[in-house]
């Protein structure tokens, strides 16, 4: 089931982004778990949209995902600027926690994939403590190559999770999920970027003041100046939206 068959969406340069708020999104994915309908959930930001515009194979992954939520504030702004506003920003970090909270009522099984061995162990431990009603069915660090994919996929299938969270960076986690989602058949498969680093305590999420100002990207840049090259996609995205306002939300 495609997201746009159940949730209202707006196309942003051809990528259908959900207009639904967090509560509706969680309800929708809860239904997906109950029906055992596989969903790749992508938490879209401007950097990912720009990458898709430059890379046809990445664009195909974005377009074929069952649900794309507006994670980046730039995506929220673009929809609003083009007079097709989304209900609110649906941040991947918050969606992860909302799904785990919801999963406590149903004893959902969760598999965690990505980051370092130390971070993934601590993340699994903290999440099990915080959400005792869920089952951490398994976890594995993100330090593996294509040759080990079969082993990783086999381990995930054996764990029979309801939710799979993958933290390997947007350039690799989305393609990896897309490649194996048909075999995995997990109701919710979502890339979560650096979420495990925050959950484990290795790094901090942007303070609330930055979140309210829609400036988490600025906080990350201040903390990690080496990210500036990636961040150049943000002004490029904004300029492209302004210049092509009439085309942004057109079907492509």
TrEMBL record:
Keywords: Cell wall biogenesis/degradation, Glycosyltransferase, Teichoic acid biosynthesis, Transferase. Coiled coil: none annotated. It catalyses: UDP-N-acetyl-alpha-D-mannosamine + N-acetyl-alpha-D-glucosaminyl-di-trans,octa-cis-undecaprenyl diphosphate = N-acetyl-beta-D-mannosaminyl-(1->4)-N-acetyl-alpha-D-glucosaminyl di-trans,octa-cis-undecaprenyl diphosphate + UDP + H(+). Pathway: Cell wall biogenesis; teichoic acid biosynthesis. CDD domains: Glyco_transf_WecG_TagA. The keyword Cell wall biogenesis/degradation applies. It is an enzyme of class 2 (transferase). Its EC number is 2.4.1.187. One of its GO terms (molecular function) is N-acetylglucosaminyldiphosphoundecaprenol N-acetyl-beta-D-mannosaminyltransferase activity. InterPro entries: TagA_TarA (IPR034714), WecG_TagA_CpsF (IPR004629). NCBIfam families: wecG_tagA_cpsF. Belongs to the glycosyltransferase 26 family. TagA/TarA subfamily. Catalyzes the conversion of GlcNAc-PP-undecaprenol into ManNAc-GlcNAc-PP-undecaprenol, the first committed lipid intermediate in the de novo synthesis of teichoic acid. This is N-acetylglucosaminyldiphosphoundecaprenol N-acetyl-beta-D-mannosaminyltransferase. It comes from Paenibacillus silagei.
